[in-house]
């Protein structure tokens, strides 16, 4: 007669034996095994070499790395000085893209309600060099090109502008302060066109940044007069910056006034 201890030991031996049987690999021989089987492989199919695949991957990623490095070198390189041969070549490329590569330009030119004009048409060359956006920021490195399309019926203007690498704050990212300056000027254009004095100053400018603006590309700046709130001495204007695909990057609103007791120069009709 077995006691509790003997029963427990018997069960443990049985469990151990069962585990050993389960863990052993089952090997079955074949009666019809061919004697011509390759003795070096023992019936196991050899794996294909991985070296060709590795070489292909190395070539692909190496090429991508070189392309990315060249792109980054171009982005981090010192931009050409205005008036140099390199600057003129880049300016010609920018003008060609504006004329033939921007759907927004084609669309605005086909709309009879819009009138196209160059910026700063009322300024002399000496005056242009003293202004921040037409002086230090001239050339392919800065505000390489600005064209304004004015819609008098809707009291709105569209500015198509190229932002060069000299406008950056962080590498490849346009400085937020510069975007504020561009918006300030463009909203003021709409305000001044609707102030009888044809001049004014910025009283308030509110800006909300919605997305990154990258250098080396064209952007479209919109501005519209709030006709219900505006008067002969105050102009309320809203605006925004959009990228080439129409994505919203920056929103703004501003108040522009004609100061009392201080005579300002009239800007005129060509911005």
From TrEMBL:
| Ranges where the Thioesterase domain occurs | 173-244
Q: Entry's Pfam families?
A: 4HBT
Q: Which InterPro entries match?
A: HotDog_dom_sf, PTE-AB_protein, Thioestr_dom
The source's superkingdom equals Eukaryota
Question: SUPFAM superfamilies recorded for this chain?
Answer: Thioesterase/thiol ester dehydrase-isomerase
Supply the CDD domains for this chain.
Answer: PaaI_thioesterase (cd03443)
Q: Which PANTHER family match?
A: UPF0644 PROTEIN PB2B4.06
Q: What is this protein called?
A: Thioesterase domain-containing protein
Question: Species name for this entry?
Answer: Aspergillus rambellii
């Amino acid at each position: 007669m077995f006691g509790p201890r003997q029963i427990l030991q018997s069960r443990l031996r049985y469990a151990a034996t069962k585990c050993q049987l389960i863990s052993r690999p089952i090997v079955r021989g074949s009666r019809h095994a061919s004697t011509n089987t390759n003795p070096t492989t023992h019936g196991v199919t050899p794996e294909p070499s991985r070296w060709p695949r590795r070489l292909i991957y190395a070539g692909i990623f190496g090429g991508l790395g070189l392309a990315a490095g060249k792109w980054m070198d171009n982005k981090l390189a010192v931009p050409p000085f205005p008036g140099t041969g390199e600057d003129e070549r880049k300016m010609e490329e920018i003008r060609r893209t504006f004329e033939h590569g921007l759907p927004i330009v084609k669309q605005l030119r086909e709309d009879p309600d819009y009138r196209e004009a160059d910026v700063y048409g009322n300024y002399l060359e000496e005056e242009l060099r003293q202004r921040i956006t037409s002086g230090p920021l001239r050339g392919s490195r800065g505000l390489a090109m600005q064209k304004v399309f004015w819609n008098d019926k809707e009291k709105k203007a569209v500015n198509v502008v190229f932002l060069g690498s000299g406008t950056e704050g962080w590498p490849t990212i346009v400085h937020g302060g510069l975007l504020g300056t561009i918006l300030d000027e463009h909203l003021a254009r709409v305000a001044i066109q609707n102030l009888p004095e044809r001049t004014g100053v910025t009283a308030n400018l509110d800006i909300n940044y919605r997305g990154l603006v990258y250098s080396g590309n064209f952007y479209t700046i919109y501005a519209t007069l709030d006709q219900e709130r505006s008067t002969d001495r105050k102009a309320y204007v809203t605006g925004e910056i959009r990228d080439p695909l129409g994505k919203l990057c920056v929103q703004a609103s501003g108040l522009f006034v004609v100061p009392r007791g201080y005579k300002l120069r009239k800007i005129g009709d060509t911005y």
